[in-house]
Amino acid sequence: MYTVIFNRLHGIIQQLTVCKAVGLYSILLQSDFGEIARLVKTVDYRSALMYNSIYIFFLTEVNMHKKIKITLCAVLCASMLAGCADNSASGGSAVSSDSTSDTQTTSSVSESTDSSSDTSSETSSIDESKLTEEQIYDNMVERSLMDLGNLGRMSKFIGKLESKQEVTIAFIGGSITEGLTAGPEKCWAKLTYDRLCEKYPDTKINYVNAGLSGTPSVLGNIRLQRDVLDHKPDMVFVEFAVNDGNDQIYKDSYDAMVRKILSQENQPAVALYFTVIKSGHTCEEYMSQVGKAYGLPMVSLNNVLSHEFETGRMKWEDYSDDESHPNEWGHKMTADLIMNMFDKATEKIKTMGDVTISPLPDTWVYSDRFADMTFIDRTHSSDKLKISSTGTFDTEKETLTSFPDGWSYKGKPSECEPMEFEFTGKNLMLVYKCANSKVYGSLEFTVDGEKYTTIATSASDGWNNPVATLAYSGAEGTHKVSIKPVTQNGEDKMTYVEILGFGVA
Q1: 375-388 pLDDT tens trace
Q2: Is the domain defined by 98-123+144-350 classed in CATH 3.40.50.1110?
Q3: pTM of the predicted model, to two decimals?
Q4: Sheet strands side by side (includes 235-239)
């Protein structure tokens, strides 16, 4: 009888977390201790040392109260079996790199509200050698969901969809969101929008794709109001994990951007999507801290790809045609990951009844220094920045398509009259066009009568992309600023610069 029970449990445990497995093993508590020890002995552990230590424990701790002893044995058995499941699936290979992500998943459960959900993957202990391709793909999708977070905002958004109220869904990020390589109609953002339209055919859903190639959250925070918030979105996806770096300016900008969205009067839902590039670079670790602090749904591409690469079922070229961007299949898969989050959230919400929206915590995850960042160009004015003179900078020429209303100068630095203005705040960002060209020069910033910094608008990796750089950071107050191009290598030669705008905080 015990053998039958044990065999059934051994099969089930491969699809369960350790905690659940321990509960199942509790049915053996009334059985004979020696019989359990005999049955455990039949399990083919990959480590003889582990087996010996456990078996010795079973046989030698004779002075322990019988029920306590059997309970502890059950816990150890469950832990060992759950740990051995992945090894048997991969032919005895080491635990995949996905184990780190699984640990993060477990710890990312929001503890601040009853609506938080532990979405820890239960796929890591499944014997994948016995699964069909469809089941393996389903496991990939499941593995991507790091957390559902607090479902108050998602409940509000899904409620509007189901009640046929007009909604707007927005996406902000870099080239992956914009749809580079796949195109605007086959990118993950548009595919997600299309899926929602299919799921809710009687609901009018507006679509905003604010993905912009080559831009990190520093610039994302500057343009957030113009490109996203002015559309009054009901749901916003944020994707900057591969465009950002690990410097504090990125952490502060990301924190500010997410918090600014959450602070909107209409209480939009926010979800975070973490991508990864071939080199393995991703800012998922520190960005997920923002998601956990604010109780947000989080989806990780790295959780998917790292596991599939480890098993040998996939290689990078299956997902991407270059070093960074998903191919058409990669975008389709991403849309599957996102819709899985929607489906899981919808299912969870139905079991929860009334769900409240948790207030934002008083403390910031990183810093509030870019909290009220405001974008200014020729058409976007603000009391935070008042231009007294544009000098000899061109005020009519269109600059970049994404930032058409800036200022430019072409000529010798000695012949340029500076742009002069006052700004009120602690931080001034310069947004400029960066090019890999010797013609593109540098801009000298004089703040409050003293030369403060010089910013080069050319770079070896520039490709006419917009860049945001901190031009001043100091004391709160009103500061006088003068900007002019400077000579290059001491030569007063033809220089070209394009100022796309400013950010003030």
Answers
A1: 999 999 999 999 99
A2: yes
A3: 0.76
A4: 145-147, 298-300, 269-274, 235-239, 167-173, 205-211
